[in-house]
Amino acid sequence: MRVLVVSCHPDDAELSCGGTVLRYTQRGDHVTICHVANGNMGHVLIMPDELREIRAEEARNAGRMLGATRVISLDVDDLYLNANDMGVVRALTEVIREANPDVILTHDPNDYMKDHVEVSRLAFDASFSATVPHFASGPHINRFIPIFYMDTLAGVNFQPEQYVDITDTLEQKLNALECHESQIKWMRDHDHIDFPDMLRTCARYRGYQCGVRYAEGFKQCMVYPRVTAARLLP
Q1: In the chain, where does DSSP find H-type helix?
Q2: CA 42, CA 155: separation in Å to the nearest integer?
Q3: Are 23 and 234 in contact, with CB atoms under 8 Å apart?
Q4: From CA 128, how far away is CA 226, in angstroms rounded?
Q5: Residues 6+ away with beta carbon under 8 Å from 49
Q6: What are the pLDDT digits (tens) for 171-192?
Q7: Span 104-122, pLDDT tens digits
Q8: CA of 160: how far to CAs of 41, 57, 99, 167, in Å?
Q9: CB of 13 closer than 8 Å to CB of 7
Q10: Element at 163 (helix H, strand E)
Q11: Would you call 165 helix, strand, or coil by DSSP?
Q12: In sequence order, which residues have a C-beta less than 8 Å from that of residue 45 and are 6 or more positions away?
């Protein structure tokens, strides 16, 4: 199976679906992770140009730990994401065509910040554009790709419809998240937020909901003709 994760910032894939990505890669599936934003505004002390480079390296290291086939950045500055920017739509369309995924994982349309919401819309629109022969470059895809929305931060206002058992991959997911030191260490030291602890707690709660120890939750994009009866989550 070919999987494309379209996430906003360089740590969002690890935060929202890292355990699921590991389930895919451990069974031999090909996973491409595409970060639309470069995360350059994600620190108080480190300036944007320097942080952009740091976060790109952190994302590559985390992607290797998850077993991703490829980690890509569209390199849009934080807070400048706009789902109506046709240049970004074109760039993501070309990524989708190259990855040729069987399923796309992306942010929920009602996530907690504008950049995440814009990426959700971009993934929806670009995956449609990927089917249009005369838009962008590369061979078009002659089918509509199912989309699954990832859990929101802390699971607020999100009721999963499908679950993935990540009991065996949680620790490795958290280790991959720790690669994003510029974010995790800063949040611990200065904002007193322990993201790995939060994720463990949320995964335990999702696990209670579906009868396993730890889980990640997803919702399917229920729009014709993307709906499928096939089980596309691992």
Answers
A1: 12-26, 48-66, 86-99, 114-129, 170-178, 181-190, 195-210
A2: 21
A3: yes
A4: 10
A5: 40
A6: 999 999 999 999 998 888 877 8
A7: 999 999 999 999 999 999 9
A8: 30, 32, 26, 17
A9: yes
A10: strand 162-165
A11: strand
A12: none
* Gyration radius (Cα) of the chain, Å: 17
Q: What is the pLDDT of residue 186?
A: 84
In whole angstroms, give the CA distance from residue 141 to residue 104.
14
Instruction: Kindly list the structural domains of the chain, giving each domain's residue range(s) and its CATH number in brackets, ordered by start.
Output: 2-220 (3.40.50.10320)
d(CA 211, CA 184): 29
Tell me the pLDDT band of 4, cut-offs 50, 70 and 90: very high
Q: Which amino acid is at 124?
A: F
Residues 30/141, Cβ–Cβ less than 8 Å: no
Which two three-digit tokens encode residue 164?
Answer: 């993935």
Per-residue model confidence as pLDDT tens digits over 186-219: 888 877 889 999 999 999 999 999 999 999 999 9
Hey, what amino acid is at 195? Answer: F
> Inter-axis angle of helices 114-129 and 86-99, to 10 degrees?
60
Tokens of 68: 């991703």
Encode pLDDT of 42-66 as tens digits.
888 999 999 999 999 999 999 999 9
The pLDDT mean for the chain works out to: 96
Identity at 59, one-letter amino acid code:
A
* Sequence-distant (≥ 6) Cβ neighbours of residue 67 within 8 angstroms: 21, 22, 25, 26, 31
Q: What pLDDT is stored for residue 190 in this prediction?
A: 79
